[in-house]
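Record copied across here:
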Amino acid sequence: MKFLVFQHIACEHPGIFRDLMREAGVDWDTVELDAGGDIPRLDGYDALLVMGGPMDVWQVSEHPWLEPEMAAIREWVGADRPYLGFCLGHQLLAAAMGGEVGPAATPEIGVMPVELTGTGQEHWFFRNCRRRIMSLQWHSAEVTVPPPGAVILASSDACPVNAMALGERAASVQFHIEITDTTVAEWGEVPEYATALEKACGQGALLHMQSEADRHREDFQSNSRALFENFLGRIH
């Protein structure tokens, strides 16, 4: 199998999913869109992974590559091909497929739980996951209107659309479970992320987030493995 990965900043890569892809014998190509990478022909790939980033889906004048990226997502998901989105990749799926994304009424930043909906508990994407999942959140925008046909798989008090699925083989999460030992420190160096973190949680919040991420790392890893294996099961 061969995957295509869309990245929007170097530090938001597939994280632990790189190890899981290697274990499964999956090869992948990464396109760094913010650095001028070109989107290749899509027909040579078995799945599309779209990662997070500090930009917002509506910032097309500042980041003109967002429009061809959303066009590629629309083509891919419209053909019912396997798609997995994280954070910005979750929002891009919604925007590309006819939903709406806007500023979050209450930004979610920190290690916090999300709850599977009734649909999520029965859905293929969350098979072998607990109803309550610990996640790392770092977002100030959110899906405000899911795209037509989408089902909501997970929610939190602040963000009703924390995970969703569209069609038979596309799924996305607003939260992060792909993190590694160095993720929090690396993301803390991104000015947009650092500003949002201090605004939401005050000075010194980065150390607390790192401590909480370390405490829940085994949960992150077990959930990442479950979701990856479930996603692989939709590739045929």
In short: The chain has a mean pLDDT of 94. Helices lie at 16-23, 66-78, 88-96, 118-122, 183-188, 191-201, 205-215, 217-232. The first strand starts at residue 2 and ends at 7. The chain has eight helices and nine strands.
